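Dataset card, provenance and construction

Sequences and ligand SMILES were collected as paired inputs. For each pair, a complete structure of the chain with the small molecule in place was predicted and serialized as structure tokens. The example below shows a pair involving zinc ion. Curators did not alter the output after generation; any descriptive sentences attached to a record were derived from the structure itself.
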Amino acid sequence: MPTYNATGITLGAHKYGDAARVVTFFTRERGKVEATARGIGKPGSKLAAAVEPFTLSRLQFAEGRDLDRLTQAEVLQGYVPLRQDMRRYAYGAALLELTALTTEPGQAVPDLFEALVAALAALAGATDLELIFWAYTLRLLQTQGNAPEIEHCVHCGARITGQVWHLAVEGGFVCRDCSPQSNGRAQVSGAAVGALRGLVTLPFDRLDRLSLSQGVRREVGRVIRAHLSYHVSGELRSLAFLDKVSRAKGRSDADLS
Ligand SMILES: [Zn+2]
């Protein structure tokens, strides 16, 4: 059977018989790849580490009639901190689920692959995990052509300065001249638009340079969630888990203060 090589991140796996898994990878060369991996439960399995979520590996597949088969794997990076810390895990799982939902087999998206590698590396070490999640979400929307337009008013094309109104269905923001009444649109401050610009331009390991007030954070979070739910169909289970973990952290921070 013909074989091929790819570098990929494991998005998820489910059991298939006693010792096999069906594993979903996001690869640099071929986009999403679904493949069987056999002998996973056996001691000394060389493939076992590579089927764990988050893992970055060099992979070899054999083409199959239905599903391809994972034949070799060399782990390049395991992002171990993501498995040891509930919040890092929750944010990482959200990145993987978003990627799985929005990519297709056979369609490589090299920019998104590089962004996912950088985002997972940043999640393993950073303190401000929310910024990494937002930055990745915006880059994912960008690769689909669905990122919010943050430079110009989507009605008149004027350069955006100061306060604007956001509507996901219109693909971005409307300026004050075009929206004298809010008409149900969410008001967004100039500082929040500035934060969105930082999120799409700063490298993942420099995102901590953005120092956002709680108010700006709320606005940015609202814009990104609204955009996501409009453009990404399907239920994002990991986001509900993320919210639960974040609320639990909020409570424990309050206990400490
Ligand atoms: Zn306008």
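Derived descriptions for this record:
The first helix runs from residue 81 to 84.
The domain at 81-256 is CATH 1.20.1440.120 (de novo design (two linked rop proteins)).
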